[in-house]
Amino acid sequence: MWTSGAHFSDIGEIICRTDADLPKHKGLTGFIVDMKAPGVEIRPLRQMTGGASFNEVFFTEVRVRDDHRLGDVNNGWNVALTTLMNERAAIGGGSGGDSVLTRVFGMVRHYGLDKDLIVRNKLADLVIRYRVASYNNQRALDKIRSGQTPGPEMSIAKMALTDNQLRLGAFLSEVLGPRLQADTGEWGTYAWNQLVLGTPGLRIAGGSDEVMRNIVGERVLGLPKDTGIDSKSSFRDLQK
C-alpha cells in the first residue's frame, strides 16, 4: 500500500520475512524486484486530487534471484531504515518553501492583499516556519555530505513539511475561498487546488505523522518506547 510511482517504475525494493525464528526486526531481507515480473500486480489508488500517485502492489508467487539481494540475509531492517531516512530526506528536503512562498507572495499582491495586516501577519508566520525547517534541513544535508546516514532529524523535516503545507493550504483556502475550487480561468486561483487537496497525503508518505512522532520521541527526546512492543521474541511466537 502507498507505493509512490509504482505504476511508472521498472524496479522496486521489497523487504521480505526470511527467518521467522528471529525477532521481528532481525529476520528481514531486502531485495530489488522487477516490477514487470510475473505475479507483480500494481493497482493505482485514485486520490481526491483526481490523480493517482500512490499504488497498492501485490506479489503472487514472485521469485527474486539472490543476486538481487540488498545487503546481508536477515539485515533487511537496516536496508529499510536507510531507504526510509533517504526518502524522508527527499520529502522533507523541500520544506524550505522559497519557491512556493514566492508564488504565494505574487498571488497576494495580485489580489491587492499585500497591505492587509492580518494577511501579512499570517504570511510572516508561514515564512518563519518554512525558514526554521530549512535550517533543520541544512543540518541534515551536512550530515549526509560527511558520509553519515540521515537520522531522526529527517523525521523532524518530514513533519515540518507536512505541517507547513497544511498551514499553507489553510491560508490559501481562507484567502481564495470558492475561487480555489471553481476553475473560472482566473489567474492564481484554481492552480492551488492540487496543493490543498494533495497535502493530506503527506501525512502518510514516507511514514505517517504518528510514526514520525514516535521516532522523535524515542530517539531525540529519549522517551520510553510504547509498552507492549516485543522486540526480543521470535516473529513466529508473536503470531501465536
From TrEMBL:
Keywords: FAD, Flavoprotein, Oxidoreductase. Residues 74-221 form the Acyl-CoA dehydrogenase/oxidase C-terminal domain. GO terms for molecular function: oxidoreductase activity, acting on the CH-CH group of donors. The keyword Acetylation does not apply. Pfam families: Acyl-CoA_dh_1. GO terms for cellular component: plasma membrane. The keyword Oxidoreductase applies. Belongs to the acyl-CoA dehydrogenase family. This is Unannotated protein.
